[in-house]
């Protein structure tokens, strides 16, 4: 199963909008077939593993990181494939949270007289399908926020432009998140201050182009912004219905898709934005800020996981911008609570992987 999980890990960034899955077939103590799922190649991990095993598959054990599917999609059901192949035993790390499967694939294999064991290294498998599980059960993407900050929780200085607070290791970690997730979101303030490209610049292959999402109620995004230099990654700008028509036409000429959504009390309706991204089969959304955007998502209870990256420095003073701005919470009782799932060093920085109590993730420590 460890080998199957490693195969599944190699499928991160390649399987979306499907889950990443690995399969290993073992006979006589030796691995005879391996497979992982890549969306562009269509075949599921079980299909590739069975094909590689060939005649050795009969009487073998199949180790699969996720319950084999039992419904017809782009491919035939993998549960039926394993039954036909003649495997003697199936070991599954985690059940498939997809309502179309959700135990039915396991039942179909057992009904054919083949024993199925479920749960070995389940947590590791669920971590790999965290965005898929959120999307397939809620219709909305897993919302992952990330912020690099000083020890006193500051991300910049007003009027000073972009500050490089965190280390190159933290920048590489950010690229790994952009590789894993399908879309990246910032507010127009970040565009005006930093003029970022918002691209994926990692070394690992990525199956889907990273969608750049801008929250810009009044369409203040400059047509000369650097993000428009890369036409291979789609740009979607969410605005209010009364935003200027001329600005809209200008951004559309630059290749952006401009989408009007209702307003909320604090800006644009993030619920409408998140639901629209879900309809686009965005499994995971990375929210990189800025300060007001983080407040908007947290105050709505829409963050499923937050990466706080702490640099060993301080800014202090009234000009320093907090990681979470906005109106703030009126008291500690109404503020979100977090549980720290992981602590990791990123060069000189420290990364905290934290889950708020509103998280919808299937591996949220609040569910334990």
Structural overview:
- This protein has 368 residues and is of the alpha/beta class.
- It is built from eleven helices and 18 strands.
- The protein has helices at 2-10, 45-53, 78-85, 104-111, 122-128, 130-138, 168-180, 188-194, 245-253, 270-279, 291-300, and strands spanning 22-27, 30-36, 61-66, 89-94, 116-118, 142-149, 154-157, 183-187, 211-215, 235-239, 257-260, 263-264, 267-268, 284-289, 305-310, 320-322, 338-346, 349-356.
- The longest helix has 13 residues, at 168-180.
- The chain is elongated.
- The protein starts with a helix and ends in a 12-residue tail after the last strand.
In short:
With 368 residues, this protein is of the alpha/beta class.
Q: How do the strands and helices of this protein lay out in sequence?
A:
Elements (H helix, E strand, L loop, with lengths): L1 H9 L11 E6 L2 E7 L8 H9 L7 E6 L11 H8 L3 E6 L9 H8 L4 E3 L3 H7 L1 H9 L3 E8 L4 E4 L10 H13 L2 E5 H7 L16 E5 L19 E5 L5 H9 L3 E4 L2 E2 L2 E2 L1 H10 L4 E6 L1 H10 L4 E6 L9 E3 L15 E9 L2 E8 L12
Parallel strand pairs: 3-4, 4-5, 6-14, 6-15, 8-9, 8-14, 9-10, 10-11
Antiparallel strand pairs: 1-2, 1-3, 7-16, 12-13, 15-18, 17-18
């Amino acid at each position: 199963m460890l080998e199957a999980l490693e195969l599944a890990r190699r499928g991160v960034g390649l399987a979306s909008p499907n889950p990443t899955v690995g399969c290993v077939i073992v006979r006589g103590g030796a691995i005879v077939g391996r497979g992982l799922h890549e969306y562009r190649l269509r075949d599921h991990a079980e299909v590739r593993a069975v094909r590689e095993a060939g005649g050795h598959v009969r009487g073998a054990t199949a180790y699969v990181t996720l319950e084999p599917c039992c419904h017809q999609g782009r491919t035939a059901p993998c549960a039926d494939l394993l039954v036909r192949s003649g495997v003697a035993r199936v070991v599954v790390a985690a059940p498939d949270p997809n309502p179309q499967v959700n135990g039915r694939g396991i039942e179909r294999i057992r009904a054919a007289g083949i024993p199925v064991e479920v749960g070995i290294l389940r947590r590791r498998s669920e971590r790999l399908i965290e965005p898929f599980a959120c999307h397939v059960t809620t219709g909305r993407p897993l919302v992952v926020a990330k912020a690099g900050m000083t020890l006193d929780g500051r991300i910049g200085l007003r009027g000073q432009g972009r500050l490089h607070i965190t280390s190159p290791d933290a920048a590489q970690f950010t690229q790994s998140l952009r590789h894993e997730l399908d879309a990246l979101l910032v507010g127009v303030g970040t565009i005006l201050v930093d003029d970022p490209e918002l691209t994926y610049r990692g070394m690992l292959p990525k199956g889907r182009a990273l969608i750049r999402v801008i929250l810009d109620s009044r369409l203040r995004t400059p047509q000369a912004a650097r993000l428009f230099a890369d036409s291979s990654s789609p740009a979607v700008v969410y605005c209010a219905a009364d935003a200027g028509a001329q600005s809209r036409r200008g951004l559309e000429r630059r290749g952006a898709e401009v989408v009007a959504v209702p307003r909320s009390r604090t800006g644009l309706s993030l619920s409408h934005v998140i639901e629209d991204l879900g309809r686009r089969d965005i499994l995971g959304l990375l929210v990189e800020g800025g300060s007001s955007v983080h407040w908007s998502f947290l105050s709505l209870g829409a963050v499923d996981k937050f990466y706080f990256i702490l640099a060993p420095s301080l800014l202090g003073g009234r000009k320093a911008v907090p990681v979470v701005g906005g109106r703030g919470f009126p008291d500690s009782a109404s503020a979100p609570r977090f549980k720290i799932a992981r602590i990791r060093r990123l060069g000189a920085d420290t990364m905290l992987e934290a889950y708020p109590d509103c998280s919808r993730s299937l591996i949220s420590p609040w569910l334990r």
